[in-house]
User: What shape does this take?
Amino acid sequence: MLKRIFDRNGDSLSRDPAKKNGRFTPQHLIDIHEVVKAYVTPVGDFIALDSVDLQVDEGEFVAVVGKSGSGKSTLINMITGIDKPTSGVVYVGDIPVHTLKEGPMAEWRGRNVGVIFQFFQLLPMLSCLENIMLPMDFCNVYSGRERKDRALHLLELVGMAEHAYKLPSEVSGGEQQRVAIARAMATDPPILAADEPTGNLDSKTADDVFAVFEELVDRGKTIVMVTHDRELASRVSRTITLADGAIIGEERH
Assistant: This one.
């Protein structure tokens, strides 16, 4: 099965009009072409993504939906560089993300993609303010004073300024997710990649968090969001549906 997929991947790529002089030429902010992701399991090879093509342009708000195991999180991991494809290419801007080594990958991700997870993943021993300042320190952007001012500004943007000096355990789950969004924005990345960002929240809190995303898109950010919430997915600019590792539908709103 893998051999068949890889052969098809190579044949398709060679005929692609975006491939010039034997190399794929990206034409969108996010350009995923013929991506296959295979995992070896005790019961055989599992194909998480099967020859996926996806293009996202600047300023889009794209939702990725599908049943559990359909490949949604794997697709997000391709965009963020958390995981690499077995075959195919992943470009973000003009960067071939699929070729980056671990060190350059971490540096590139820190400056270009803000990642938001379902379970927040804030450092519990740091205040909300310090959690947001940490990526700036890691990526060596902004001066010391500017980092604090920017973190406070981002907390204000997500409605959390009054909780700046509290620990994550001292605020609610919805408030922690707001802080996580502010942290994702710390280095002013052009792209936000959110994996089930409202999946652990009640409907009212989820709606509040989604409103923050809408405001960020209005400010020019590009967001790709994995979600099980069909109602929220209907409010973005485009919805992609995955099943068995393949894109089976696309709807513009």
